[in-house]
Amino acid sequence: MTSCDQLVSTICELLPVVLKREVSGADAGTALLDALGLNSTTGLELVLELEERLGLEISVEDLGRDDFATVGSLAAYVADHLLADA
Amino acid sequence: MTSLFAVSDHLPSGRVPIEALAGELGLTPMQVRIFRRYHGLGEVSRDEGGSLLDLLRGAVAGLAALRGREHLVRYVLHARSFPTVVPYPHDPVRELCAELGLDAGVPVFSVGHHACASGLLAIDAAGRLLAADGGPGALALVLAGEKAFTPEAAAVPGSSFFGEGAGACLVSASGGRDRVLSYAVDLRGEFDTVADCAESESEFQRIYGEALAAVVRAAVERAGLSLERVTAVLPHNVNRVAWHQVCRVLGYPRERVVLDHVPTVGHVFCADHFLNHRTARQRGLLRPGEPYVMAAAGAGRGATFAAMVLQH
Per the database record, which ranges form the Carrier domain (chain A) (predicted)? Predict the structure, then answer.
């Protein structure tokens, strides 16, 4: 079972990987698009990197722009859309 | 009232996986993975060694209704996503007209600047031209389809891959088949710099789903209908996720949006609607007397969101 807190923590670890720069102090409330400058491509990279890190597949069928509002909203989406092992 | 007298399409048999195009388009493995997983794209149609004339000829070959009515064709319009579709001095549309035995004096021209929504503009323009001076029984031949012959014409960065194919239809100013009930267009000149400016591109992505949904809603209202009555939406084949977003905004069931060709054919420029028309007929989504929608977003120099309601 992957909790939302664990997902928030893993997303924060992956942010520097997809943004290719240091990201300090990120937490569930950090705005991905506005504050960090994530765009649609890097946002999707983040989701796919997360899949690899978790070893689980995430259903991206319903993934919308709103889900990328904050680290917490993305973690909530992922928690609700985890599929079988990747 | 403008109507589609006959509709046809042509897809070549060649298919290329998007991974094979990554090198020439400078895409990373991650970007290709996103296209496949998220956008739902997989293969694109290609007519290796074939010309644009071959594609257009293939589409017109399916227009059985044209045979014996060549003398009734008053206009020929080629709807284009890109302003330049063949190297100078080739002119495949005029070559095709000659092959078909159309009157040499028939005006032949291209319709563009609505990018991938230019096919809908061409249908609307053809109907209005015929209504103005077509005469009894007059027809316009509307063509769509392009070659993915430059990197720019092979992919839409971050959104789609183009597939080669073509569509054709005969438009009349009146008639009982596939009557155009309404046409709505939202031209957004402020996105003129999408290709050059990250800020503009981000804003375009942000408004894309809402703007496309809004123009669909506007066309349906203009036709005096409610969205519940629309039996199918024939989209442009840009990708799966963009249309899922539009469905969410509209509250429209995604299974009635004809996205069947996105994973296996790609975005066939302005010809998607003709291709999807055949598929919708085959799937039983178009029913006599019932309305359906053709809609597209076009991004080039400026953005266009367009929707047309037709009655089958």
Answer: 1-82
Cα-atom radius of gyration of chain A, to the nearest Å? 12
B88 and B13 both lie in a single domain: yes
Mean per-residue pLDDT, A7-30: 93
- B28 beta partners: none
pLDDT tens per residue across span B169-215: 999 999 888 999 999 999 999 888 666 677 788 788 889 999 999 99
**Domain identity same for B192 and B159:** no
Question: What ipTM, to 2 d.p.?
Answer: 0.81
Under an 8 A CB cutoff, do A61 and B37 touch? no
Q: Distance between CA B72 and CA B48 in Å, rounded?
A: 34
**From CA B247, how far away is CA B83, in angstroms rounded?**
30
Helix (H) or strand (E) holding B208: helix B198-222
pLDDT digits (tens, 9 = 90+) for A34-51: 788 888 788 999 999 999
On chain A, the residues whose CB falls within 8 A of the CB of B38 are 44, 47, 60, 63
Query: How many structural domains is chain B composed of?
Result: 2
How many other CB atoms are found less than 10 A from the CB of residue B196?
Answer: 8
One-letter amino acid identity for A35?
A
Q: Give the structural domain span for B214.
A: 179-311
| B245–A65 C-beta distance less than 8 A | yes
Rounded Cα–Cα distance for residues B268 and B234 (Å): 13
CA distance B88 to chain A (A): 36
